[in-house]
Amino acid sequence: MPSVHSVSYSILRQQGLDIVFGNPGSNELPFLKDFPEDFRYVLGLHEGVVVGMADGYALASGKSVLVNLHAAAGTGNAMGALTNAWYSHSPLVITAGQQARSMIGVESMLANVDAPSLPRPLVKWSYEPSCPEDVPRALSQAIHMASLPARGPVYLSIPHDDWQCEVGEEASLLPPRDVHHAGAPSDTQIDALAEHLDQADNPVLVLGPEVDAERANALAIELAERLCMEVWIAPSASRCPFPNRHACFRGVLPAAISGISEQLAGHDLILVIGAPVFRYHQYAPGRYLPDGAHLIHVTSDAQEAARAPMGNALVGDIRAVLEALLPKLAQSDRTMPDPLPIPSPANSGEIGRLSPESVFDVLNDRVPDDVIYVKESTSTVTAFWQRVEMRHPGSYFFPAAGGLGFGLPAAVGVQLASPDRRVIAVIGDGSANYAISALWSAARYNVPVIFIILKNETYGALRWFSKMLDAESAPGIDVPGLDFCALARGYGVEANHVETRQKFEEALSQALDASCPMLIEVPTTTIEP
Ligand SMILES: Cc1ncc(Cn2c(C)c(CCOP(=O)(O)OP(=O)(O)O)sc2=O)c(N)n1
Ligand SMILES: [Ca+2]
C-alpha cells in the first residue's frame, strides 16, 4: 500500500509544485525525509524570508508554490509576508508541521494548537486533516484552492506522524486531477459592456495587478488604443500592467478617496480592470466618484467586486472579458492622448549623497530593457514611476499590502523564477532590515540579484505621513548608523558603498557583469512620496 508520503509527493510532482521554500523544525523532518531528487528545496533563515521568496517566485512564474513552515512559531513569523501574498493573490500552498496527533491536545512542545485558525484571515482555506488517510486529498484540495480564482494562499497543518501511514489505492486518483476555471462572459454581458463604452464621451481605463498577473497587458494596450482612452494604474500599485511611457499612460492614481475623484474628474465612464476598487491608503475623505461618472469593475475576485463602495462589476476571467470585448468595439475617432513629458535629468544630490531621482536616471539608462524591478522604498515610488521605464509584463513588483520585508526575499524568488531576465531590487534602508537574512539565501544559492539600498537614514514615508497627521514629534522615525555593506558581506554577498553618480554607474556596471548577487549601498537625500 502506498504511504501518505509517497502519494503526497506524486500529487506535488504531477501538479507542478517541485520547488519547496521552507525553514524546518522536527515536525517537518518526516515530510522532508527521502526528499526526491527532482525536487528543489530553498532554505530561508526566517519564515518571513521563506514566504517572501515564495511570493516572488509565484508572482513571477504564475505557478503555485509549496511552502513548508515549522508549526505555530514558523507560521507566526510568516504572517507579515502573508499579508502581501494575500493581497497579491499569490497561490502559495503553505504547509506547517504539526506535533504527533496524540500529543496535540496536551499542548506538548511544538503543538500548533487550533492550527487552522492561526493564519486566518490571510488565507483562502485553512485545514488540518482529521486522519492521516485524508492528508493526500487535503493536499490536493489545497493545491486546487490556491490556483482557482480568486487565486491566493492556503494553509495545511499536517501532524508529523501521518507521513509514514498507509493510504488506500484510491488515493492514486488524486495526482492527475486537472481542475480548471472557465470564466468567459456571456454575449449579453459583453454587449452591455461594449454599449456602455460606445456611449461614453470620455471613458478612462484604470488597470490593476491582475492584468499583469494574467499577462493581459497587450490586450489592455489594444483596448486603450481602440478607444483612445487615458490609462491610470490603480492606487497602491504592486505591479505594472501598462507601459509607463505609452502615450495613453497617465500615472498611478493617488491612494486617496478625494484624490482619485479629483484625478478622474471629467470622465463619464471609469472602467477598472484587475484591481480592487480601490486600495486607498491615506485617509482623505471625499466623493467616491467625480460628478457624472459611472464605474464598471472587471475582476476575477468576487470578494473585491462585492466589497467595493460603488459602481457595477463583472466577475470573471479578465483575459476572456478583454478578448470577447475587443471585437465588439470600433476604432474611436477621439484624439489619442499625448504622451507625458519625460522628466529632465535629475540633479545628482549633494556631497556624499545621491538624489533618488539620479539613481533612477542611471538605472533607466544602464539596465537591460527587460529588467525586473522589485521595489520597496516607499517615499520614492512616485519618482520611480516617473523616471524608470517599464514596458514588459512582469517588470515590477511592490509589496501588495505594504508589508515591509517583501523586497529582499521577493527579489530572490523572482530571480529564481526568471533566470533569463536580470532582477534589480530597489530597497529603502528601513525596509531592508525586516528580512535582511534573505541575503544569505541569495548567496547560498548564487541568485544574481542586484540589491540597491537607498540609504536616507530615515523612514522617509513616515516623515511625510507625520506631517500629514500633524505628528512630526513622533519618535522612532530615524534609522542612522546602518552599514549594509558589512551586513551583506556577513551573509556572503559582495557589496559596494558609493557616494557619487560615477561610482554608482561603475558599481552597477560591475554588478550587471557579475553572475552572483551584489549589493550597492547608496546614501541618498530624502524626498517627499
Ligand atoms: C512590517 C512593516 N512594519 C512597519 C511598516 C510601516 N512603514 C514604515 C516603517 C515605512 C518606512 C520605510 O522606510 P524605507 O527606508 O524603507 O523607505 P523610504 O525611506 O523611501 O520611505 S513605510 C511604512 O508603511 C510597514 N509598512 N510594514
Ligand atoms: Ca529610508
TrEMBL record:
Please state every residue range assigned to the domain named Thiamine pyrophosphate enzyme TPP-binding.
383-522
Q: Which residue intervals define the domain Thiamine pyrophosphate enzyme N-terminal TPP-binding in the entry?
A: 10-108
Provide the coiled-coil residue spans.
none
> What is the protein's given name?
Benzoylformate decarboxylase
Give any GO molecular function from the UniProt entry.
Answer: thiamine pyrophosphate binding
What is the similarity comment for this entry?
Belongs to the TPP enzyme family.
> Which terms does the UniProt entry file under GO BP?
carboxylic acid metabolic process
Sorted keywords for this record are: Thiamine pyrophosphate
Pfam families per the record? TPP_enzyme_C, TPP_enzyme_M, TPP_enzyme_N
Output the InterPro entries linked to this UniProt entry: DHS-like_NAD/FAD-binding_dom (IPR029035), THDP-binding (IPR029061), Thiamin_PyroP_enz_cen_dom (IPR012000), Thiamin_PyroP_enz_TPP-bd_dom (IPR012001), TPP-bd_CS (IPR000399), TPP_enz (IPR045229), TPP_enzyme_TPP-bd (IPR011766)
State whether keyword Chaperone applies. Answer: no
Question: Could you tell me which residue ranges the Thiamine pyrophosphate enzyme central domain spans?
Answer: 190-325
